[in-house]
Each structure stands twice: as structure tokens, then as C-alpha cells.
Amino acid sequence: MLTNCIRGRYKNYGVGPAIFSPTIIKNAEDLAFLEKDDVVASLEVVGRGGCGEVYRAPLPNNTGMIIAIKKIMKRSADGAEPGEDESRLLDKWMRQIRSEIVTVGRIRHRNLLPLLAHVTRPDCHFLVYEFMKNGSLHDAMKRSSSEGVVELDWLLRHKIAVGVAAGLEYLHVHHKPHIIHRDLKPANILDDHMEARIADFGLAKEVPDGNTHMTGSNVAGTCGYIAPEYHQTLKFTTKCDMYSFGVILAALVIGKFPSDDFFQDTDEMNLVKWLRNVMNSEDPAAAIDPKLKGNGYEEQMLLVLKIACFCTMDDPRERPSSKEVRVMLSQIVH
Question: Where is the Protein kinase domain (predicted)?
């Protein structure tokens, strides 16, 4: 049972919602509406994934508080006995629920999105979070790229980078046991009043004290952000998160994602390798997003690109720690 995964801390599990933030959700009745099919069906859908929908709703008895409700199915929608592939997928979703509860259910940091509550029903689970009205970093960068809207100026991009680094430092250094996120990417960085929040801990793993690494049964994460040593050996460390963070730093300055067609048309066909070559060329500023040029911060952006190159070194031992990167980024003064 999931009770074992959360170490018996939430004794109401199975008879009502498990509330992780009692200062926000004061009692189980606040989430009673999630037990009613007609009410859930009427909620605003703000996202869809393989596991189910993500809803947006006001939190009863908390004026002005909007919550995001992530639905994860326990079985097929028609109630039929799941086939082998579907059963494997359902098992994967259950593992991700356990991971979210074990990790994000207990952590509190301004740059991490906390899990507010967990509601279980016969057919599904609901994970409740604070709703981030500004969406993800991926969404904001897409809007900036496709619509030409510069809502992400350099000062804001730098603030986001510092915030994510601070969140990683908490996970890697200050939290005991240490936590490795394993799926750090712009889509999992949310914006709360211009304050970056790391989200989606479904693949996160705690690292027992004394362990230098963990080993997975298969590669988890998103193509373009996965550290090469993890892909090759299935062993992951905090330095794998740092590689992913380096790719995010690069994307913030370049204004492009690893999956963009742009890189498929380059000799390197890879964001990290392309960045290394440009940074070693006679014109490293060619890597900077054209929308950010001419603002007087080119030197700062080149410095951040150098940090991105450090974070994405092939040898994980040569990559800086999250604390070192947070300090370096914080020392960049506008």
C-alpha cells in the first residue's frame, strides 16, 4: 500500500484525502467534491496526458485559491480487464504516484511545487497542487518563439535560472535523503508570479545516505535532456540532473529546445554539441537568441552559456554541483 511508501505518516490514507499542506487545505471536506463524478466532469480541463486529465478548480473555503488536480487512472476507462501493455502502463503510473508522494509530499521550498493532497477513488487517484496560472517555461518560450512576444526578457530568464538552481540545491544538498529529479526540462518548470517552481516528481528518486548513485531498470527522462552516462549505464546521480539543467540554461539563452528542427539541420544535430562548437568559434554571441540581443546583457548571457557548457560536460565528475551553479548564477549582477 501507498501507506508504506509514505512511512505511516498520513494515517487517514484509504478513508479520506491525505492532506500534505494543512495550512492551505484545512480539512478533508474541502476536497469532497472530487468524490462526485458529475462535479469532476464539469471541471475545466487544462491539460491531458496518457494517465488522464489535469483540471483547474477553485478550492472551497479558501477564497482566491486555485488548485490544479492531476488525475491518474487505476484501470481502463471502460472498466475492462487491462491487457498486458495497459497493465504495464498502469503499474508505471502507480510507481509515479508513489514517487510523487514519497518525495514532493514532504518537501517545502519556494522553488519546488508542493503536493497539497492526495485523493484516492476506486477508479483513479487525484494529486492536488497549487495552480500556476502562468504555465510552464516551455509554454512561455514557445509563445516567445512563435508569436514573437518577448515576455521572457533576459532579467526574467536569469531569475528563472537562479530559482531552478536553488530548487536543485535543496533537493541535492539540503534535503535528507537527497533527491534526484530525473526529468528536469522546461515543461516541468512552472511559473508562480515570476518565481520558478520545479514540478512533476513522478520519476524522482531518493538516494539513501552513503550511496553515490542509483541504478534504474530502464532510462527515464526526456530525450535531449538525458545525461549520456545515464543513457549508457542506467546509473544516475545528482550530476545527471545537472546535465539536464545545463541544457535548460542553454535553451534559456539560445531560445531553442533540443527537439527543435533547427538542430536537425546542423552538422551536430544536437543542442549541446552545437553550443560547444559555437562557443569555441570566433563569434560565440551567435548562440544568443536574436530577441535578446542589443539589451546590453550579452556578456552576462555568454557567461551563462559557459556555465551551461560546464554542466553538460561528458564526464560527470567535471560538472559543477547545484550549489556551485546557484552561487555562480547569483553572482551575475545586472
Answer: 40-334
Provide the whole-model pTM.
0.87
Question: Is residue 2 a part of any domain in this protein?
Answer: no
Domain boundary among 130, 156, 172: 130
Q: Is residue 38 within a helix (H) or strand (E), and if so which, with residue range?
A: helix 37-42
What is the predicted pLDDT for the residue at 10? 44
For every residue of 114-128, which 3-state class applies, written as one string? Answer: CEEEEEECCCEEEEE
- CA neighbours closer than 13 Å in the CB half-sphere of residue 241: 29
Say what the pLDDT of residue 321 is: 97
- Written as nine digits, the cell of 64 is 482566491
Separation between Cα atoms, residue 240 and residue 204, nearest integer Å: 12
**What pLDDT shows up at residue 6?**
41
Q: Are residues 39 and 89 in the same domain?
A: yes
Q: What is the CATH number of the domain that holds 67?
A: 3.30.200.20
Q: Please tell me which residue in 30, 183, 191, 200 is annotated as part of the active site.
A: 183
Report the distance separating Cα 171 and Cα 165, nearest Å.
10
Q: Is 200 a catalytic residue?
A: no
**Containing structural domain, residue 89:** 13-130
Q: Could you report the average pLDDT of every consecutive run of 10 residues in the chain (334 residues)?
A: 43 64 90 93 86 88 86 65 63 71 80 92 90 90 73 91 97 92 94 84 76 64 92 90 98 96 92 97 96 93 98 97 98 92
How many domains is the chain built from? 2
Q: Which of 87, 115, 130 is a domain's end point?
A: 130
Check whether residue 116 and residue 142 sit in a common domain. no
